[in-house]
Design a protein that fits this description.
It is a single chain. This protein has 7 helices and 2 strands. By secondary structure, the chain is mainly α. Strands 1-2 form a two-stranded antiparallel sheet. Helix 2 crosses helix 3. The longest helix is centred in the last third of the chain and has 17 residues.
C-alpha cells in the first residue's frame, strides 16, 4: 500500500505545525524546510483547513497553525480524509471487472490487511508523532 504525496505532505505539515505550537508558520517556510513544492503544499493546506485541522489566516500577521490540539488528531482520520480512495486492488472499486472476483479469497485478505493498517494508524495521534519536538526542530532547522 502506498499513500499519495498529498497525504504524506499533510502529515508532515501537521507535524511541523504541532512542533511550532501557537507560532504561525508560512507555506514558504514549511515548503523550504521540507524541500517540497509550495503549490502542492498550498493545495494540501487548503484541504486541511477545510477539514478543520489547520487554522489558516491571511495577511501580514497571518500564517498557519494547528486548529486544535495535537492529541485530538488521529493519524488514521487524516489518512482517510486525504486519500482519494483506499481501493488497493481493482475488486474493491465499483468499476471491478475482474473475472475471478466471485471465487477469489485474495480480496478478503487484502481487505483485512487494509483494515489492520488503518487500525494501527488510528492508534496514534499527532502528539505521539511529535513526542520528541527538540529532535524534529533540529532536523527541520527550526529556531525556538
Amino acid at each position: 500500500m502506498r499513500l499519495t504525496y498529498q497525504t504524506d505532505y499533510a502529515l508532515r505539515l501537521l507535524m511541523y505545525l504541532a512542533v511550532q505550537g501557537d507560532r504561525r508558520s508560512s507555506i514558504h517556510e514549511i515548503a523550504t524546510q521540507y524541500g517540497i513544492s509550495e503549490n502542492h503544499l498550498m493545495k494540501v493546506t487548503q484541504r486541511l483547513a477545510a477539514l478543520g485541522y489547520v487554522d489558516a489566516l491571511r495577511g501580514r500577521s497571518g500564517g498557519l497553525k494547528l486548529a486544535g490540539r495535537a492529541q485530538d488528531v488521529r493519524i488514521g482520520d487524516v489518512v482517510r480524509a486525504m486519500e482519494p480512495d483506499l481501493e488497493i486492488v481493482e475488486c474493491f472499486g465499483a468499476e471491478n471487472t475482474c473475472a475471478i472476483t466471485p471465487a477469489c479469497a485474495l480480496r478478503h485478505v487484502l481487505d483485512e490487511a487494509r483494515e489492520r493498517f488503518l487500525e494501527v494508524l488510528d492508534s496514534y495521534t499527532l502528539k505521539q508523532l511529535v513526542a520528541r519536538p527538540g529532535k524534529l526542530r533540529i532536523a527541520l532547522n527550526i529556531v525556538a
